[in-house]
Amino acid sequence: MPHPKTAEALIKCAGPIECSLLPRLLHVTEAAAIAASYQMGRGDKNYADQVSVEAMRRMLNCLDMKGVIKIGEGERDEAPMLFIGEEVGTGEGDLEVDIAVDPLEGTNLAADGIPGAISVMAMAERDGLFHGPDIYMDKIVVGPEVVKYEKAHPDERIDLDAPVIRNLEIVAKALNRNIDELVVVILDRERHKDKIKEIRGTGARVNLISDGDLMPGIATAIRGSGIHMVLGAGGSGEAVLTAAAMKILGGKMLARLVLPTVANGGTPEEIEKEKAEKMPRLETMGITKDNINDVMGIDKLAPGKDIIFSATGVTPGILLKGVSLFGEGDARVHSITMGSSGAVKFTDTIYIHDKEKTPLRMA
């Protein structure tokens, strides 16, 4: 009789979406990453994004499923494909899924050849992912050790509205570290100037990044990454994708929707103008002036029970290597995939068309 703690238990508890679609989801992000990699460093972020979107959509439409884009490239009138509400897949089979995509997370990073660009997406059963509008989310992300610590110390909990020092004290205790040994990742934006000063005032170290705080968020749940917390306001779509992965990895994330003019300290007139433009659309998603400021946890952002996630590196990053191109359309790609069963895979894939011309080599 096999031991009850073997991998068989995880394999058997995988849901139908994870069993049927996760292996194919890897191919989707790989194709998008390879397409984007050909434009790496060429300085045209829009074209890099376009080719990755096109590749991702082509691959999605090969999957036997009834998929709906919930987090995508924008509204129907803003994006030619992978727009919010677009139906993808062959329409065959019984699987009905909601999808969050970012074919090229870090368009500027890819265009300039800077580390951290990825192709990423998540899926879940219907209503399994938050239907987020295209505005910002203010967030805090920490790993599973903090969740464990909170369970043992219910009076000490991470709080989006708490002073930074309060949250860092909890993380330090959970990780058995000093605060000056912690690293906090935050986007290098003017709106974060005071927050950065506050973090530094605690003695913690700050890792400023120009774009792409999705993978740093995931890295908080992986020991040895050197990242212990992610803070700040960024895209809501990226926040939902982060939440999908963090739910699988057992981490914690708190987030609140915020209009860009509010986050960036706009004038009262600018804020009111943006409210007039965006609130009607937000209200169709169930977001009103009464609940827009609500703090959401992972179970609100990613309520699904059968969630799958895949990310493939375009340029080298914290957890993933970048795409290596060999000519003739051959490539080597590095990805992370995971599902609600708890299984996490780092995959190193090599695509070679002609093995005689390009034989496999040991790394």
UniProtKB/TrEMBL annotation:
GO terms for molecular function: fructose 1,6-bisphosphate 1-phosphatase activity; metal ion binding. GO terms for cellular component: cytosol. InterPro entries: FBPase_class-2/SBPase. GO terms for biological process: fructose 1,6-bisphosphate metabolic process; gluconeogenesis; glycerol metabolic process. Keywords: Carbohydrate metabolism, Hydrolase, Manganese, Metal-binding. It comes from the Archaea. CDD domains: FBPase_glpX. Belongs to the FBPase class 2 family. This is Fructose-1,6-bisphosphatase. It comes from Methanolobus vulcani. The gene is glpX.
